[in-house]
Each structure stands twice: as C-alpha cells, then as structure tokens.
Design goal:
Layout: H1 10-29, H2 34-41, H3 45-53, H4 60-69, H5 84-94, H6 100-117
Helix pairs in contact: 1-3, 2-3, 2-4
Length: about 120
C-alpha cells in the first residue's frame, strides 16, 4: 500500500512548483521529450510528470536524476551553501558569555583603585 505524501505548506508547494516549471522549461529548451528524459533518468514518465509538476511525493532522487539528465546537477551544490542564520547562531554560541560575578569584581576593583589613586593634599 503506497504511503501518503507528506503535508506540504503553501509556500513550500510554490517553491516545488517553481522548481518543476524550471525543469520543464530546461527540458524543452534542450528539445528533449518526456520519454527521452524519463528513460535517461531511469524513471517512469509518470514520475517525470510529478517532478515537473512539483509534486512533493516525488523523491529527491527523482529530482536529482532529472537535474543530471539536463546537466544541472551542479546546481544542487548551491542549496544551503550560504547558511547565514546557521553561521550567526554558531558565532553567538562561540562568544563567551559575560560572567556577572567577574564583571562585578572588575567594576569594584576599578572603583577602589580609582579612590586609592586620589591622594589627599
């Protein structure tokens, strides 16, 4: 019995549909038929239709096979390459947290040394 496709949020569906459309246009620019791309990718034409429709039920492997047939598999390296949020979180975790006791002692030491530097005349 086939599994149910995953729940896909509208924004994610728009992204998948846009990807499928770009793959369909890339196939047409190369003047390749559905049958040829499906055969070269080792998938059925039905699966290719799903990929080009942005179906969330199509496997990532199917998308990758179609990208490879179209010569676009290198584009997969760009996914997640610039992880700004992840790097920022990592940088924040690497910064030492200010220690309140040490900061309080430093302030106390500064104020006491400042009062010792003032000599009565």
């Amino acid at each position: 019995m086939p599994r149910k496709p995953p729940i896909v949020f509208p924004q994610e569906q728009r992204l998948l549909s846009a990807l499928g459309e770009r793959l369909r246009l890339a196939r047409k620019r190369r003047k390749l038929s559905n049958a040829v791309v499906a055969q070269r990718a080792g998938i059925s034409r039905t699966t290719l239709y799903k990929v080009e429709a942005g179906d969330a039920g199509a496997t990532l492997g199917s998308y990758l096979r179609v990208l490879a047939v179209l010569g676009l598999e290198g584009d997969l390296n760009q996914l997640g390459a610039d992880d700004r949020v992840g790097r920022k979180l990592q940088d924040l975790a690497l910064e030492p947290a200010p220690n309140r006791r040490t900061a309080t002692r430093a302030k106390t030491a500064k104020s006491s040394s400042a009062s010792n530097d003032e000599e009565p005349t």
